[in-house]
Amino acid sequence: MQENENHNAITTRLDNKIAENTDYAEIFEIVEKRRSIGKYKPCDMPQEDLKKILNAARLASPARNAQPWRFLVVKDQKMKEFIAKSILRFS
């Protein structure tokens, strides 16, 4: 629960700073303090948050502006498990 609350607090703070169009140094500080999470709760992400994340990823500058990615949102648990097992086979 604590990890999710920290993530939400950082996300909200970042959203507010971007919306205010203020101190970019503070935005970079927020981004630098983020951490990777290895375990996730088995709950759905709010659709609006998912849209924001995918839009940010879409706007990120790829190498040579190649834009080599496609996004697919998988909600079915069995499909997630199948994908995870398939990826592990090739790593």
Indicate the topology.
Blueprint lengths: L1 H19 L3 H10 L13 H13 L17 H13 L2
How would you characterize this protein structure?
With 91 residues, the protein is an all-alpha fold. Helix content is 60%, strand content 0%. It has one domain. The chain has 4 helices and no strands. The protein is extended and about 45 Å long.
Task: Describe this protein with a few key phrases.
91 residues; mainly alpha; 4 helices
Write a brief caption for the model.
The chain has 91 residues and is mainly alpha-helical. The protein has 4 helices and no strands.
DSSP strand content: under 5%
Number of domains: 1
Helix amount, in percent? 55-70%
Structural class determined from secondary elements: mainly alpha
How is the main sheet built?
A: none
What's the number of helices? 4
Number of E strands: 0
Note the overall shape: extended
Termini gap: 31 Å
The poorly predicted ranges are none
Rg result: 16 Å
Mean pLDDT: 75
The arrangement of helices and strands along the chain is: HHHH
